[in-house]
Amino acid sequence: MNAPARAPLMALDDALAALLACAPALTDTESVPTFDATARVLAQDLVSALQVPPADNSSMDGYAVRCADVTEKGAVLPVSQRIPAGHAGEPLKPGTCARIFTGAPMPAGADAVVMQEDTREVGGDIHAVHIDAVPQPGQWVRRAGEDVTRGAVVLARGQRLDEAALGLAASLGLAQLRVVRRPRVALFSTGDELVMPGEVPPEAMKPGAIYNSNRFFLRALLQRFGCEVSDLGIVPDKREATLAALKTAADHHDLILTSGGVSVGEEDHIKPSVQQLGGLDLWQIAMKPGKPFAYGHVRRDAGVEGQCHFIGLPGNPVSSYVTFLLLVRPFLLQLQGVGDAAALRLPPATPLRADFAVPRADKRREFLRVRRNTQGGLDLFPNQSSGVLTSTVWADGLVDNPAGATIAPGDTVRFIALSDLLA
Ligand code: AMP
Ligand code: MG
Q: Is the terminal CB of the chain with fewer CB neighbours within 10 Å at N or C?
């Protein structure tokens, strides 16, 4: 008798689309201090109540002049006032100049700044300067509103706040920002072999024991993407323990994220437990590393509204890391209402030259750990095993290699920068 034909694995793009279709944005919002809003997502447009900069000001240390007074090199103008940053000057008297410093408002009547380097002090009693360059109107002047005009939507709802966006929000005078509430994520690792660093010193580790590495990077990644993490530690490879952990977590979280225990062995209790407590909507993806990826939901207690998302990542550290970046990251961004559609797709790949060979094609789409070299090509980390976490630290990107494709040195391949996946 022939073995039953196995259903083909789901393609990564289809899996991502299915996942995103299950992740409507959270509707709760909160107001947080701008200082603490890094990595949060704006829940409303930020409309500027002022113009930035508020007034025309000098972009140089020098002298504010009327261009009409300096039609040729060597003009001598008395210095009629001094305007440091933070102080407003008087209207500029015709035939004079104003000593001015970077950021100081232009005095009324002045239409250009001559930088200090193009001037010389005139000796003697009167305070005057030689102007050694002929200024053009507007020279070294930053115009009022050249950064932000009043009434402009400076940052739109759905904008994720990186450091630059925080600075821009602060430049509008906003001390508090309304953002989408953080997704609440329960994280647990499965595996009887796992030991926490600090619990047992390396020399006393029992045969078969390994340190729990996934817990560290998954927690850090969740925080990077704006989540509030409940770290539930290590859950043993037992059905009862798995069911109990899932049940407890479901009521108070938006997402349960697990690593390990989601393959096909008898010690893999995640899949049947999620099926028992809710349902599995997605399982196994045609990608390498990362095949044993699962998405589903866990019902909450009667009386608690809705259901909890469930994502089961593979146990192998590289698989866990890569599937987080390719699938969990966009899921979390969409949960938080990120409006940038590009952030919800795989980042665009750059064509680059492979300075390595992959002589054997894989049936699955593969994400190879690579690094850009100084010749403008890519080097391959020699060990592409999904257990070798060193490869992810060494690499600065992934080559997205289609199923069935070999690579010869000199071929153009698709490079995705890890920095794009971490942004
Ligand atoms: P599993 O998916 O549970 O079959 O695990 C696959 C492989 O990943 C096994 O070699 C596990 O020991 C390893 N593994 C699972 N969870 C972790 C973890 N949290 N940290 C490090 N390695 C892990
Ligand atoms: Mg396991």
A: N
Q: Which residue has the higher pLDDT, 263 or 314?
A: 314
pTM of the model: 0.92
Going by C-alpha positions, the residue among 74, 70, 83 that lies closest to residue 136 is 70
Ligand 2 centre to CA of 190 (Å) is: 6
CA atoms within 13 A on the CB side of 208: 3
Residues near 100 by beta carbon (within 8 Å), at least 6 away in sequence:
58, 61, 62, 63, 64, 82, 83, 89, 106, 107, 113
pLDDT in tens, 138-164: 999 999 999 999 999 999 999 999 999
Pocket test of ligand 1: the residue of 192, 214, 258, 284 to mutate, having most ligand atoms within 8 Å of its CB, is 214
Distance 315 CA to ligand 2 centre (A): 6
Inter-helix orientation angle 239-252/270-277, to 10°: 50
**Minimal CA–CA distance to 20: which of 338, 352, 360, 334?**
334
Domains within the chain, CATH numbers bracketed: 12-26+182-344 (3.40.980.10), 29-49+156-180 (3.90.105.10), 57-142 (2.170.190.11), 350-421 (2.40.340.10)
200 Cα–ligand 2 center, Å:
20
Q: Can you tell me which residue has the tokens 């980390």?
A: 381
Q: What digits encode the pLDDT tens for the residues 252-311?
A: 999 999 999 998 888 899 999 999 999 999 999 999 999 999 999 999 988 888 899 999
